[in-house]
Amino acid sequence: MTEVLNQLFIGGAWVDAADGATMPVDDPATGEILSQVADAGAKDARLAEEAAVQAQAEWARTAPRARSEILRRAHEIILERTDELARLMTSEMGKPLAEARGEVAYAAEFFRWFSEEAVRIDGGCGTLPDGRNRMFLSRRPVGPCLLITPWNFPLAMGTRKIGPAIAAGCTMILKPAPQTPLSSLALAGILKEAGLPDGVLNVVTTSRAGEVCEPLLRGGRIRKLSFTGSTAVGRLLLAQCADAVVRTSMELGGNAPFIVFDDADLDVAVDGAMVAKMRNMGEACTAANRFFVHRSVAEEFGRRLAERMGALEVGPGTRDGVDVGPLIDIVGRAKVEELVADAVERGAEVLVGGQTPEGPGCFYPPTVLAEVSPESRLMDTEIFGPVAAILTFDDEDEVLRRANDTPWGLVGYVFTEGLDRGLRVSEGLEVGMVGLNTGLVSNPAAPFGGVKQSGLGREGGRVGIDEFLEYQYIAVPVR
Ligand code: NAP
Fold first, then answer.
1. Is the CB of 21 under 6 A from ligand 1?
2. pLDDT tens track for 223-273
3. Ligand 1: centre distance to CA 8 (Å)
4. Cα 469 to ligand 1 centroid, rounded to whole Å
């Protein structure tokens, strides 16, 4: 394994925090400290901002093909180092190695996708309806960006923002989550190796998020915030962006309904549930949070899901054969424990799991709860853990109303063999994405994002680059 990077990346150089501060990065499987990483403060944020602002004009002028090829090279380097990056990610975040390898491929694909989009930024020209003016329309980078990412997909949340920003010609400051800074620093190293000019990407790792980010958002030089994280923090950052009218993209929390109709193929539904619930140990914004199962098949679905969940092996992500790694930290696990205890107190039946194991590490077993009361706290809280909560329903109108009865609208899952019903219910869900007879929607070529309080804007797909571009229209009189 090559050296683990642990300094700030500013203006193309690796530097310590100005005040010399460092913060520990823990292994959630053991609780042991993996590394000490530079802990940036307000002064480092100013230096990173200066580097991004200084680099912006030249980077915007750089040929799209050159920007594209840097992304393409970085895509290749990431894939060449799959094993190394997967091990680093597993060590700081906990997910099993097989899942970490999957994330490396997913993360790399954002770079390939946006390398292809970089050379297709279009414009237009024409005569205006009055016939007296021509219109020239071009698209320009929005300017220096602040990118804030969560810990649950340490590499892919970075590439999903960095890819389109590079393609569009924006410079940026990346602030990763303090639990998982190592993957982001490795990514910065790869982009440098791939030829990214100094100052285009700056990475500030910090335990002082407010001190670092708020002055950047209020200062007027950062022109765009792309944030992925909780709705609560997203709301706070939107308010901070108001002063300087900073453009925003917000990928926020979810509360996904997973609906199984009586005509569903239960093999397909249980397979879908395993992915929608257990990908990333349930620590995903797309995780199925509320399982609505038709009363006539609820018992069989619950029994089959519990069998599959109970057969999963829990342990350190680096161990062969492990399916479920530790949760991110003790706080995250305590939240899951409280939600399960609340549901059980309100009458839920534990079909499997539900007991925190003894010993070190933040492990929690795959758990299935049946007969969950709609009053339970986990109905309107992201569980963010391996817990499937099953409720029953009787008819289509009722389940749509209950599925939509939430402030969130990121993703929903529908299982039915009826095409008409599948499309009707999918279209009736107030969400940005639907998995119809599948438990996986994420793909770099598709627009990812939510409605309602799950966010603003889309990442990936043909529209992902639009979030980093502005239109400019030039009027030229016809003489
Ligand atoms: P979080 O607590 O909102 O944190 C996300 C990021 O925001 C972290 O880097 C965090 O750093 C930073 N942050 C927190 N307060 C801040 C402030 N005042 N100023 C600037 N930055 C601040 O979320 P999380 O627990 O890391 O991630 C889980 C959440 O992300 C879930 O709600 C999940 O649904 C959501 N998510 C959404 C998507 C999507 O695409 N929609 C994808 C993945 C995850 P600190 O930890 O240092 O505060």
1. no
2. 999 999 999 999 999 999 999 999 999 999 999 999 999 999 999 999 999
3. 20
4. 24
pLDDT in tens, 21-31: 999 999 999 99
Structure tokens at 182: 């190592």
Ligand 1 binding pocket includes 410 (Cβ within 6 Å): yes
Please tell me the residue having the least CA distance from ligand 1 atom 43.
285
Q: Which domains does the chain carry? A: 8-252+454-475 (3.40.605.10), 256-443 (3.40.309.10)
Instruction: Give dist(CA 447, CA 42) in Å, integer.
Output: 34
pTM equals 0.97
Give me ligand 1 centre to Cα 231, in Å: 8
pLDDT attached to residue 428 = 98
Query: Which atom of ligand 1 is closest in space to residue 384's alpha carbon?
Result: 31
Note the pLDDT tens digit of each residue in 45-102.
999 999 999 999 999 999 999 999 999 999 999 999 999 999 999 999 999 999 999 9
Q: Detail the DSSP E strand segments found in 220-308.
A: 224-228, 247-251, 256-260, 288-294
Contacts of 101 (CB under 8 A, 6+ apart): 82, 83, 86
Ligand 1 pocket, residue 251 CB under 6 Å: yes
Q: Tokens 């869900």 belong to which residue? A: 429
The residue type of 393 is F
Given the DSSP bridges, would you call strands 33-38 and 124-127 parallel, antiparallel or unpaired?
Answer: unpaired
> Is residue 280 a contact partner of residue 287, using CB atoms and an 8 Å limit?
yes
Strand partners, 38: 22
Catalytic residue IDs: 251
